[in-house]
Write a structure and sequence with these properties.
The structure is a single chain. By secondary structure, this protein is mainly alpha-helical. It has one domain. Strands 1-2 form a two-stranded antiparallel ribbon. Strand 1 and strand 2 form a beta hairpin. Helix 2 runs parallel beside helix 10 and helix 4 packs antiparallel against helix 12. The chain is globular, with a radius of gyration of 19 Å.
Length: about 260
Amino acid sequence: MKAVLREPAILAGILFNVAVLVLGLVLLRSSVDAFTRFTREDAFVEWMQFLIFLALAALLAFAAWDQWDRLARALLPVLGLGAFSAVVLFAALEEVSYFQRVLGIASPDFFVRHNRQAETNLHNLAIGGVSVHKHLMVKMIFVAGITHNLILPALAIRRPGVRAWVERMGFYLPPLTVSLVTAVLITIAQLALKHPRSGEVTELLGATHYFVTAGAAYLFGLHYADPVFKDALTRRRVAVLFVAFLGLLVLVAWLLGDAAPAPA
């Protein structure tokens, strides 16, 4: 367990999530307005979610290409990784409403009438007064997240065939220890951050968890049988670059969020 938590990518992701949670708690306790600025549209939390999802989509696409190039054009894992990458890219673009606000594009009439924020995205749709995000997407994400992060990794401890089957599909299983740490942080955020936009923080915690565990699996072979890099020295060097890249994402998200205009 300790060895897993000491992996550079995993440790960096956990420390970042702890820092985001602590900062959110401090801001909310000191000023509701400060927390609102931290989590509002086009501020740090939202830009960081977008960048994390975008980087994760690129990582998964790279892993798919690597599988295709090395494993005699193995179709099943390539399709699995490709589908995973497409879903994550969709989440990234949804987060920034396909750059609608950045480009100053007006929403079509359908989204003005049916989107809770009058934006061009699907996750804020409300059809007949029923929120798509609250009544459909959140439940699907919860079931998928619990299954992928807790149930299957727990089963794989006693039944290694579970992990092998998941990897044949092109996917990976996060280390159970890391998933438990993330689950605790998300639970604290949900219980302690009483604010309409507190969900943005929990989404960022989950996105970071997936980015670092996917990177550790596909690149470095943490609980994954066939990573891109197999040499121990190369893994260590790439791990350092991975952590540095995460730091760069934080910096870029902070600059983008700080440049966002204040709400009217």
